[in-house]
Design brief:
- By secondary structure, this protein is of the alpha/beta class.
- The chain has 16 helices and 17 strands.
- Helix 2 packs across helix 4 and helix 12 runs parallel beside helix 13.
- The radius of gyration is 21 Å and the shape is globular.
């Protein structure tokens, strides 16, 4: 099997529903992993859930563990450029050849699972492949990001050393429920007896998660109660701050933008402090690894005239964080937005905080198998109802070109919305602008 064949096979499974109306999803995943030899139980894991920040937090955890000399697996979703990103060891994605060979090896287990339940979904197959790859690479630990929710997510079969729920906001409401409370209950389903659960959730969500931990017998650790953040003098396009816990103070310099990342860093640190001495990185390990952190597609900044930011803000919570971060980082500079949103997302509430910022708006679309893009003209209509003028340009490359032409040299172009759009335009930018500038 070639990588192209493996990719086509997986894309053929992408329409598997995630609805609660689909019974037996976790049982199917359990059977699938059993046929593969339960690879998810062969190494220590850290389980990271939440509405926003879980990908960044997972990346921070993996970086700190790696700095301590551990071989570390990292599974996050969705990917920006390639399915291979779902299975990384020490920061490097599985090769296309190994990806294809491993999927081919998994086919008998897939067929057996299909006979007993139904064919594993796109997500389940990629997750199982990551679990198996980490076992084959003999990792010392793996950081596993939750897909959707928690209780019925395929990742909820791991036996983690620590569980994390970064925060709770409105996303995947068609699956998890229409309210913060319903979503919090689902995410709290990752709580397990005797396993510390660390969360930066607030309000009713925090109360519900804490109550769920009590019922499950999982020690609950509130980031807000055990950690404080102090701002330190920072460089223009980075941030310095200290995170103080009951055990230590970490003076950190992050080469990434967005003050919200400070909350993610505090959450990661508190989670690391719950680990056994054999796994726990030192303060120096945490500091050195965070200083070199790279989180693609999360407030990712490329200086220029104009500069450009790539950020995946595909739900209202992420969009609000992005809007705040842009205002904090760039002050009174104007923005040129290029935005595409998936049809299933809450477009009005995603756009609301962004439309409050000064700048121009170009709405576009993307073409990804199994994923429908919202019509750009509908996004224009939403903007116009807020009193903002906007353009609809279906082709995303053209949309980016128009936004850059409209922008003055002091402006900041912001590509955001769907992961699919952000990943596509980020790849184009790296290949056609960054690489050419180096040659």
């Amino acid at each position: 099997m070639t990588y192209s064949e493996a990719s086509n096979y997986l894309l053929g499974t992408i329409n598997e529903t995630a609805s609660r109306r689909t019974p037996g999803r976790l049982e199917r995943m359990q059977a699938f992993l059993r046929h593969l030899g339960d690879p998810h139980l062969l190494y220590p894991t850290l389980h990271v859930g939440g509405t926003s920040g879980k990908g960044s937090t997972a990346t921070m955890l993996a970086a700190a563990l790696g700095a301590s000399g551990k071989r570390v697996g990292l599974h996050t979703k969705p990917h920006l450029s390639s399915m291979t990103e779902r299975a990384r060891v020490d920061g490097t994605a599985i090769s296309e050849d190994d990806f294809a060979a491993l999927l081919e090896e998994m086919l008998p287990a897939i067929e057996q699972t299909a006979k007993e339940h139904a064919r594993p979904s796109y997500y389940e197959t990629l997750l199982a492949l990551a679990f198996l790859y980490f076992a084959r690479r003999d990792v010392d630990a793996a950081v596993i990001e939750v897909g959707i929710g928690g209780e019925l997510d395929g990742t909820n079969l791991i036996a983690p050393e620590v569980s994390i729920i970064t925060n709770v906001g409105l996303d995947h409401t068609d699956v998890l429920g229409e309210t913060i409370e319903l979503i919090a209950r689902d995410k709290a389903g990752i709580a397990k007896r005797g396993v510390p659960l660390v969360s930066d959730a607030v309000g009713s969500a925090r109360a519900l998660i804490e109550a769920a931990c009590g019922r499950a017998g999982a020690p609950f650790v509130s980031v807000a109660q055990v950690a404080s953040i102090e701002q330190l003098p920072s460089e223009t396009y980075g941030q310095s701050f200290a995170v103080s816990t009951r055990e230590a103070t970490y003076e950190l310099s992050l080469p990434i933008l967005g003050r919200f990342q400070q909350r993610n860093a505090a959450t990661a640190i508190v989670a690391l402090e719950q680990l056994t001495p054999a796994l726990r990185p030192s303060v120096a390990d945490v500091v050195s690894s965070f200083a070199q952190l790279v989180v693609p597609g999360r407030m990712e900044f490329f200086p220029g005239f104009p500069s450009i930011v790539f950020d995946v803000a595909h739900n209202p919570d992420k969009a609000a964080s992005l809007a705040t971060a842009l205002a904090e980082t760039f002050g009174d500079r104007r923005f040129a937005f290029v935005i595409g949103i998936s049809e299933s997302k809450d477009s009005p509430n995603i756009l609301r905080p962004l439309l409050e910022l000064p700048g121009t708006f170009v709405f576009t679309a993307f073409d990804t198998p199994g994923r429908a893009s919202e019509r750009p003209q509908r996004l224009v209509n939403i903007a116009q109802l807020s009193g903002r003028s906007a353009r609809a340009i279906v082709d995303p490359i053209e949309a980016l070109a128009v936004a850059r032409r409209q922008a003055e040299s002091s402006h900041v172009v912001v590509v955001t919305g769907s992961t699919f759009l952000t990943g596509l335009l980020r790849d184009w930018w790296l290949e056609n602008v960054v690489e050419r500038s180096r040659s």
